[in-house]
Design goal:
This protein has 188 residues and is mainly α. The chain contains six helices and two strands, in the order H-H-E-H-H-H-E-H.
Length: 188
């Protein structure tokens, strides 16, 4: 069978004219060009996909780093408030209270500006949600004093009750901040 095919090809190929040879070369060249274009396109898509994936991982890691920084600043601010309010020897001045409210408000706005759907891990998203809930609790504790007290008191006395109320909030934010730091360090 192979001998028959070889004879057929040899006989028919030797009888081809120059025009027929050119047509065969062009057809084979076209097939090779089409296969090469498909291969190059597939390879380029693979390279682009890897590049986009690497860029997304880098973006997510930078975003988690910024989120960790904001979370840590929130923890430090809440910790300072707790230390001030739980110490019976210190008084929280109205200026200090306004400063802490303002700082927490700015940090909360910064945290709200983070697109949490782009954070690299579900754990990072969970920690941000925990911080939001703790900020809500902290804002409740920092609610403005009653109207009849605003004009008569220059210093708000600190109490042990405030300290006990703040401790779980501060601790939850500390844990969330350090968990975010771990997520940043372990994210690849």
């Amino acid at each position: 069978m192979n001998h028959f095919l070889e004879c057929f090809i040899r006989k028919n190929m030797t009888e081809l004219t120059n025009t027929e040879w050119a047509a065969w070369v062009q057809a084979i060249g076209s097939i090779i060009a089409i296969l090469a274009a498909i291969g190059i396109s597939t390879w380029q898509n693979h390279v682009d996909s890897n590049r986009r994936s690497t860029e997304q991982r880098g973006y997510s890691k930078r975003l988690m780093s910024v989120t960790h920084k904001i979370a840590y600043d929130i923890f430090l601010t809440l910790h300072n408030i707790e230390q001030l309010r739980s110490n019976p020897l210190k008084n929280e001045t109205r200026i200090m209270r306004d400063f802490n409210r303002s700082k927490l408000g700015r940090l909360e706005m910064a945290l709200h500006a983070i697109p949490i759907h782009n954070l690299g891990t579900i754990t990072a998203v969970e920690q941000v949600m925990i911080i939001f809930s703790q900020l809500e609790a902290a804002n409740t504790l920092m609610a403005p004093e009653p109207a009849d007290m605003t004009h008569h008191i220059d210093h708000v006395p600190c109490s042990e009750i405030y300290g006990r109320s703040w401790r779980p909030i501060v601790e939850a934010c500390r844990v969330a901040s350090y968990t975010l730091r771990g997520e940043v360090l372990n994210y690849t």
